Amino acid sequence: MSDRPERWTEATVYPDMWVDPDKDPRDNDGPGPEGEAATLADYLTTFRLTLRMKCEGLDAEQLARRSVPPSTMSLLGLVRHLAEVERDWRTWLDDPEPLPKLYGVRDGDFDGAVADPAVVEGAFRDLEREQAATDAALAAYEDLGRRVGKDGISIRELLVHRVEEYARHCGHADLLRECVDGRVGQ
To answer: Domain total for the chain?
Structure first.
């Protein structure tokens, strides 16, 4: 007997999908967005939705479970980490004094991801707030080539880095979720 969950999906059309195409909030018919900024924003939105979908239907214990040992990652830890990263990206724009860490010390985002419904609720609230604040700060920059902050990072680089960060962690979320309850799909 194995303590590994059996693999499953809700999808009936394609067995490697998370949900059927007609129920997938990430699917949109028609042509893609026009322009570089809109394209990057569209990809970011897709990965943000993917992360949320990977967390849906799980209780606090499942979200906090470190299901891929020896890693300290959990789905809840990823949510908290991305809230922390969104907050940090605003510092890259104009080098203000760094905002205080949301979860205290380094790695507090993962270490403090405990199976408490209030912690889960707070993490998703933090993520939404930090995403909105970073989106608003970046909206002030129309020129994607503009270099900002002490390191002279371009707005384009920052936008691409955001997409990359979410995409990478959505890959982690795939593995974490499959190990929690066996659910698979993109």
So the answer is: 1
